[in-house]
C-alpha cells in the first residue's frame, strides 16, 4: 500500500517536472516469468522512479548499503522494495549482509518477480556507458543454476536517455530492448563462474549500447549534443518529439565516429562551422530551425496577429498562475544550490521539494480564501485545482512568449537583414551536408 502511494505521488511529480516521457517498446516488459531489468544510471533516484513507473508490476531494486545506515532509512527503503548491497569500494553498513541480500534477490526471481539492477554501480550524468560490474550476470546465472535452468528468466536492457536530465520541462526516452535468456552460459558457469559471468556481462554491455546514445568521451558528448541542436529542424518535414531527437543524435554520433576513424580533419571543420552558426543564431536571438522556414509574408503576419491575440486573451490566466505559483518556484531556485552539490541529484531533489512546497503554498492560499471569502469545500477544491493548472499554464505561457519574441526577431531580420539571414541559412545547410553527405 505504501509502495503504491509513493509510486503514484512520484509519478505525479515526474509528469509535472518533465514535459515528455516516451516509452519505446514497452511490450518487451510483458513477461510472465521473472525478469532482471538492467539500465544505465545517469540521474540517481529519478532513474529508479522512472523504471518503477514504466513497469506495470511492482519492482525490486538493488541499492548501495550506505543508504541504509540507520533504522528509519532501513525501514523506509525496505518498504519501497529496495534490497541493500555493500559495495567493495565502500565501508560496510551495519545490519547489511551481502549473502542475505543475494539470497533475497534469488527468492524475488524464483517467485517470478522483477529485479532492477544498475550494473554501472554509481550514478554519473554522462552519456558514456561505464564499466559494468559482473554481479548482475552472477545473480542471473546462479538463480538459473539453482532451478535447473528452467526458471525462464529474462534479462531486459533498458536505456534511459535524458535530453537534459536536470532541466525542468526537459524530455526523456525510455528505450526497452527485447529480454534475453542467460542459459546459454549455464554449462560454462558450472566449471568457471568468473569466465561465464564476464562473457555475459559483455553481452549486457552490447545490448545496453544499442538502446542508448553512448559516447567515447565528454568532449564527444558535447559535440554531438551541440551539433544535433544546431541542425535539428521542425520545418523540414521531420518528426518532432524526444524519440526523433534521440534518433538524430544517434545518426550524428555514428557520423562523428566515422569521421574520427576515416577523416579526422573533418571534425575540426564541423566544430568551427557549428560554433560559428550557434554564435550568430544566439546573437540574432532566433531559433536555429527558423532558418528552414519558408517565409510567406501574409501567413507569417497572420501568425503574429493570432499569437498576439492569444497573448492578450491568455494574459489574465498567466497572472493568476504567476501570483499563486511564484513563491514556491523562486524558493526552489534559492534552495537548490544549498541542498545540491552534484548535478545528478538536482532533478530528484527538485521534484521532492516541489511535492512539498507547492501543496503547502496552495494550502496557505486556501486558508486565506477561507478567511476572506468563506469558500465551501467544493469551492476550495476548485480553487486548489485552478492554482495547479494555472501554474502549469503560466510556465507554458512564459515559454510561448519567448517563442513569440523569436518570431518577432525573425520577422525584423527578414525585413531588414535578409541577405545576412540567407547567408546564415546557407552555412547551416552546408553544415548539414558536411555531416550527412
Describe this protein's structure.
The protein has helices at 2-17, 44-54, 71-79, 98-110, 135-146, 186-191, 193-210, 218-231, 242-262, 265-284, 297-339, 346-373, 377-416, 418-436; strands at residues 20-24, 35-39, 59-64, 82-85, 114-117, 154-162, 171-176. It is of the alpha/beta class and 437 residues long. Helix 3 (71-79) links the parallel strand 3 (59-64) and strand 4 (82-85). The radius of gyration is 26 Å and the shape is flat. It starts with a helix and ends with a helix.
Summarize this structure briefly.
By secondary structure, the chain is an alpha/beta fold. It is built from 14 helices and seven strands.
Shape: flat
CATH superfamily of the largest domain: Glycerol-3-phosphate (1)-acyltransferase
Order of helices and strands: HEEHEHEHEHEEHHHHHHHHH
| Tally of strands | 7
Count up the helices: 14
How many discrete domains? 3
Overall residue-averaged pLDDT value: 91
Write the SSE topology:
Layout lengths: L1 H16 L2 E5 L10 E5 L4 H11 L4 E6 L6 H9 L2 E4 L12 H13 L3 E4 L17 H12 L7 E9 L8 E6 L9 H6 L1 H18 L7 H14 L10 H21 L2 H20 L12 H43 L6 H28 L3 H40 L1 H19 L1
Parallel strand pairs: 1-7, 2-5, 2-6, 3-4, 3-5
Antiparallel strand pairs: 6-7
Features:
14 helices, flat, Glycerol-3-phosphate (1)-acyltransferase, alpha/beta, 9% strand, 437 residues, 3 domains, seven-stranded mixed beta sheet
Amino acid at each position: 500500500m505504501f509502495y503504491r502511494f509513493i509510486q503514484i505521488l512520484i509519478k505525479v511529480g515526474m509528469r509535472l517536472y518533465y514535459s515528455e516521457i516516451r516509452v519505446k517498446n514497452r511490450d518487451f516488459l510483458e513477461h510472465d516469468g521473472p525478469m532482471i531489468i538492467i539500465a544505465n544510471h545517469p540521474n540517481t533516484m529519478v532513474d529508479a522512479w522512472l523504471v518503477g513507473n514504466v513497469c506495470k508490476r511492482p519492482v525490486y531494486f538493488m541499492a548501495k548499503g550506505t543508504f541504509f545506515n540507520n533504522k528509519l532509512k532501513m525501514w523506509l527503503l525496505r518498504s519501497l522494495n529496495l534490497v541493500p548491497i555493500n559495495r567493495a569500494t565502500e565501508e560496510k553498513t551495519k545490519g547489511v549482509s551481502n549473502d542475505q541480500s543475494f539470497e533475497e534477490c534469488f527468492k524475488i526471481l524464483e517467485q517470478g518477480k522483477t529485479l532492477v539492477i544498475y550494473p554501472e554501480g554509481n550514478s554519473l550524468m554522462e552519456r558514456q556507458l561505464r564499466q559494468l560490474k559482473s554481479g548482475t550476470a552472477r545473480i542471473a546465472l546462479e538463480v538459473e543454476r539453482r532451478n535447473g535452468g528452467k526458471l525462464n528468466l529474462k534479462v531486459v536492457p533498458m536505456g534511459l536517455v535524458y535530453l537534459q536530465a536536470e532541466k525542468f520541462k526537459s524530455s526523456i526516452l525510455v528505450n526497452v530492448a527485447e529480454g534475453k535468456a542467460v542459459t546459454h552460459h549455464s554449462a560454462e558457469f558450472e566449471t568457471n563462474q568468473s569466465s561465464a559471468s564476464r562473457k555475459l556481462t559483455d553481452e549486457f554491455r552490447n545490448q545496453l549500447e544499442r538502446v542508448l546514445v553512448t559516447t567515447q568521451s565528454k568532449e564527444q558528448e558535447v559535440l554531438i549534443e551541440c551539433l544535433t541542436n544546431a541542425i535539428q529542424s521542425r520545418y523540414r518535414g521531420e518528426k518532432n518529439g524526444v524519440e526523433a531527437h534521440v534518433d538524430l543524435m544517434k545518426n550524428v554520433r555514428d557520423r562523428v565516429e566515422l569521421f574520427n576513424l576515416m577523416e579526422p580533419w573533418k571534425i575540426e571543420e564541423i566544430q568551427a562551422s557549428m560554433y560559428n552558426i550557434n554564435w550568430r543564431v544566439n546573437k540574432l536571438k532566433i531559433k536555429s530551425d527558423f532558418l528552414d522556414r519558408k517565409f510567406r509574408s501574409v501567413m507569417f503576419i497572420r501568425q503574429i496577429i493570432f499569437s498576439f491575440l492569444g497573448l492578450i486573451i491568455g494574459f489574465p490566466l498567466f497572472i493568476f498562475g504567476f501570483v499563486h505559483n511564484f513563491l514556491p518556484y523562486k524558493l526552489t531556485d534559492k534552495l537548490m544550490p544549498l541542498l545540491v552539490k552534484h548535478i545528478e541529484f538536482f532533478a530528484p531533489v527538485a521534484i521532492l521539494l516541489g511535492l512539498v512546497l507547492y501543496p503547502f503554498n496552495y494550502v496557505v492560499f486556501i486558508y486565506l480564501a477561507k478567511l476572506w471569502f468563506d469558500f465551501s469545500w467544493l469551492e476550495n477544491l476548485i480553487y486548489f485545482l485552478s492554482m495547479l493548472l494555472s501554474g502549469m499554464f503560466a510556465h507554458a505561457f512564459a515559454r510561448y512568449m519567448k517563442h513569440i519574441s523569436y518570431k518577432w526577431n525573425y520577422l525584423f531580420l527578414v525585413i531588414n537583414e535578409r541577405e545576412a539571414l540567407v547567408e546564415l541559412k546557407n552555412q547551416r545547410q552546408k553544415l548539414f551536408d558536411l555531416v550527412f553527405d
